[in-house]
Amino acid sequence: MSSTPLAPTCDSAAAIGMSPAKGSRLDGGTLAIVVVTVIIWASAFAAIRAGLKAFGPLELGAARFSIAAVPAGLYLLMTRPALPRLNEVWRFAAGGLLFVALYTALLNLGERTVPAGAAAFIININPIITAVLASFLLGERFGRWGWIGTAGSFSGIGLIALTETMGNEAVGSGAGLQLGWGALLVLGAALCNSITTVVQKPLFARHKALTVSASNMVIGALALSPWLPGAYAQAQTAPLPGLMASLYLGVMPSLVAYATWTIVLSRMPAARASNFLYCAPPLAMLLGYLWLGEVPTVMGVIGGLMALGGVAIVNLKR
Fold this sequence. Notes:
InterPro entries: Alkyne_AA_exporter, EamA_dom, EmrE-like. This is Threonine/homoserine efflux transporter RhtA. The chain crosses the membrane at residues 28-48, 60-77, 89-110, 116-138, 145-163, 175-198, 210-228, 240-264, 276-292, 298-316. By secondary structure, the chain is mostly helical. The protein has one domain. It has 14 helices and no strands. The chain has helices spanning 12-15, 28-51, 57-79, 86-110, 116-123, 126-137, 144-170, 176-200, 209-224, 228-237, 240-267, 270-275, 280-292, 298-317.
């Protein structure tokens, strides 16, 4: 929920309190919207890699959310939602600072060295991190299978980092540890997503999901605004593909995909709908190959499948 992008990933939609839809039948129209949503979110990882060829990591984030914040701000002005209570202000602030600004910074910094497909696999363990946090902070049960799945997912991430490090050393760049750190930065982005899920869960009892999302975008854009002048300067000499990638990131994963996802959630139970998001990492890997020519390694694919398999174990056994 890119990118993952400004959207709940895997089963986090249910975790943040979105009500399941009354119906559960998957008709053709709903399936089409699901497919569009998954494709857009999966493409965000390749788009970030493309945008980083024209912008610095923080400048790309500033450009992306300066675009997304405009319609988000207009939405808030037009709908005039209820103002947050004093005890809710910090939850809104956390969403913008963690889920937008810091998440974007860490993901963009990580994707300087981590391929699009590998980054998507790492981000997609967000439900596991959320479950672990919920077990400690909310007292939710997290049994033996949960820890087994968690161990499997983190082992897969370790394999991805090791594989990238070995691959970098193989070409004699002398910066093998950089790729390993890149994977850790992407993992940090997933942690930001999970913390926000837990912190903002109480907001959905009083505020609409789109209100919270729009607020996150505006606050996050303000936090990233110090890098906006640098983004403008880099845009003057940026190649057209990089400019188009930044525009795509601001419009499609940040705005369109979230809107289509809310439509899906209005037609299907959140838990069932979230299962479709497991298609995003393999699709991101395919798009990384088609868009950027990134050829995944065998060990990288194995690590990604281990990470995704751990998520499946946790969800099936909870």
